[in-house]
Amino acid sequence: MSIKVIRPGLHASIQDLGRYGFQKYGVIVSGAMDTFSLRIANLLVGNEEGEAAVEVTLMGTSFIFEEDCLISVTGGDLSPAIDGEAVPQWRPVYIKKGSVLQFKACKSGCRSYLAVSGGFAIPEVMNSKSTYLRGGIGGYKGRVLQKGDRLHSHPIPQNMNALFQHLKRKCQSRSFLVTTWFVNAVPFKKLKQAPMIRVILGGEFDRFTQASQSQFFSQEFQITPKSDRMGYRISGPILELKESFDLISEAVSHGTIQVPQDGNPIILLADRQTTGGYPRIANVVSVDLPVIAQLKPGETIRFMEITLEEAEQLYLKEEKRMEELKVSILFKMEKESPV
Q: Which of 32, 125, 127, 303 has the most crowded Cβ, counting Cβ within 10 A?
């Protein structure tokens, strides 16, 4: 199966759950910004949850499907439409050959994920299909998608064939058809105004003035236009150190919040560097990283401190919810397309 890029939009790239195990060589992790949405998109079309998908940012991306296909669209609401008709998200979608999928106005969030049943036929580089843009490796030729690119996919898995054929028979004269069931995305999306982002204290938190420590948790910060997949620069009260000091560069992680000399924090994200030399005031807990991934420049956030133990419990709770979702999806698939 193949999909042709008609318009690349603002920024669309191939991403999976990341390239782990190579940071010691200076190779960044990359991967999807919103891992929850990517995982669910894959589960909806019968793929392994870490399979690669297209990460679409904000608007303008469109594809023509050169063969019948089973897809899903999750993440932010970028007004997806097939041949001009709005297509519901968070469910399997049968789409006919020759149909055009377009992402239009951004209604909520800022990143959507397009998964195809069978997964994209893209070679792995260092055990991942993710696009490392600055290194020019992985994904589709190591770059963002461009007009005319063709993305090929593997055959639909055998366990999805019954659903695919069922929707195909019922589709008739329409361009696409969706299942009667869908995933309730509310527990995973958590999109709201000025979300409260939970953090654990960073290694250099105590080196900031008492006023800065208090302001970090009591004041709002705004996402600035100088934000990308590498990190979100945020502005608010200027965070100051008690005194300047030399800091040896150390490993950083997804969600590390560094504070450079200008006092405006940077939240490190999917394309983060492997090491950093700025003081670390806090680290975003893993379950809230997908929330940040869906924020746009101009939107605001607040921070709340929790303990490492609380962060671990939140993670375990979220993973339990994901496991329950896997079982529910399998049940719904079997019920909709009985053999």
A: 32
